[in-house]
Amino acid sequence: MMLVVITGPMFSGKTTELIRRIERQMIAGRRVVIYKPTIDTRYHPSSVISHNGLKINALVVPPDEEGVKRIASETINYDVIGIDEAQFFPSILAEELNKLAIEKMIVVSALNLDFKGEPFETTMKLLAYADKVVSLTAICKVCGKPATRTQRLINGKPAPRDSPRVLVGGSETYEARCRKHHIVP
Ligand code: ADP
Ligand code: MG
């Protein structure tokens, strides 16, 4: 079938677009699932509720090789496989999905860049393997122009370069910014 990759900064609507695409498949009677890494605690652990109340089967897996193997081993149960926050998985995920996409419809949402503006390796590979890329932008919180980057803030100030790559947070910690207003001290 095919591999669709949805990418962009935080707040660009990646998860919304993932749900929209999976939901259409579900309505058409396809067997669907969405996997999420355990690291992302912002959502209810075992289901994704879409805007129109449809409940999508969602499974949480650890973002390591074991988790990737689990996803690959369960594909017999599904026609369509969605993965949210794919950048948190090791890049072996991209190789596995590249193979699975021969038979299955795979839809993946992945952050483009980390808070320093550096690419996530897993996302880079997914984009290269993709049959279709959906590139989304948010709105820059400073100037209102299209935002392609994610600004990390600590006590309201740009986070320094040496802070850890993974730091789960929402709008108190992150802002969408354009290239000009993305700052890494
Ligand atoms: P993502 O998965 O890419 O982080 P979501 O699908 O979870 O995005 O949510 C995107 C939502 O974030 C938008 O629908 C909007 O309501 C909200 N939002 C918050 N800040 C911004 C911003 N700066 N630009 C655009 N949308 C924003
Ligand atoms: Mg999201």
From TrEMBL:
<dbReference type="GO" id="GO:0005524">
    <property type="term" value="F:ATP binding"/>
</dbReference>
<comment type="subunit">
    <text>Homotetramer.</text>
</comment>
<dbReference type="InterPro" id="IPR027417">
    <property type="entry name" value="P-loop_NTPase"/>
</dbReference>
<feature type="binding site">
    <location>
        <position position="140"/>
    </location>
    <ligand>
        <name>Zn(2+)</name>
    </ligand>
</feature>
<keyword id="KW-0862">Zinc</keyword>
<dbReference type="GO" id="GO:0071897">
    <property type="term" value="P:DNA biosynthetic process"/>
</dbReference>
<keyword id="KW-0479">Metal-binding</keyword>
<dbReference type="InterPro" id="IPR020633">
    <property type="entry name" value="Thymidine_kinase_CS"/>
</dbReference>
<feature type="binding site">
    <location>
        <position position="174"/>
    </location>
    <ligand>
        <name>substrate</name>
    </ligand>
</feature>
<keyword id="KW-0418">Kinase</keyword>
<keyword id="KW-0237">DNA synthesis</keyword>
<feature type="binding site">
    <location>
        <begin position="166"/>
        <end position="169"/>
    </location>
    <ligand>
        <name>substrate</name>
    </ligand>
</feature>
<dbReference type="GO" id="GO:0046104">
    <property type="term" value="P:thymidine metabolic process"/>
</dbReference>
<keyword id="KW-0067">ATP-binding</keyword>
<feature type="active site" description="Proton acceptor">
    <location>
        <position position="85"/>
    </location>
</feature>
<dbReference type="Pfam" id="PF00265">
    <property type="entry name" value="TK"/>
</dbReference>
<dbReference type="GO" id="GO:0004797">
    <property type="term" value="F:thymidine kinase activity"/>
</dbReference>
<keyword id="KW-0963">Cytoplasm</keyword>
<feature type="binding site">
    <location>
        <begin position="84"/>
        <end position="87"/>
    </location>
    <ligand>
        <name>ATP</name>
    </ligand>
</feature>
<comment type="similarity">
    <text>Belongs to the thymidine kinase family.</text>
</comment>
<feature type="binding site">
    <location>
        <position position="178"/>
    </location>
    <ligand>
        <name>Zn(2+)</name>
    </ligand>
</feature>
<keyword id="KW-0547">Nucleotide-binding</keyword>
<keyword id="KW-0808">Transferase</keyword>
<protein>
    <recommendedName>
        <fullName>Thymidine kinase</fullName>
        <ecNumber>2.7.1.21</ecNumber>
    </recommendedName>
</protein>
<feature type="binding site">
    <location>
        <position position="143"/>
    </location>
    <ligand>
        <name>Zn(2+)</name>
    </ligand>
</feature>
<dbReference type="GO" id="GO:0005737">
    <property type="term" value="C:cytoplasm"/>
</dbReference>
<feature type="binding site">
    <location>
        <begin position="8"/>
        <end position="15"/>
    </location>
    <ligand>
        <name>ATP</name>
    </ligand>
</feature>
<dbReference type="GO" id="GO:0008270">
    <property type="term" value="F:zinc ion binding"/>
</dbReference>
<dbReference type="InterPro" id="IPR001267">
    <property type="entry name" value="Thymidine_kinase"/>
</dbReference>
<feature type="binding site">
    <location>
        <position position="181"/>
    </location>
    <ligand>
        <name>Zn(2+)</name>
    </ligand>
</feature>
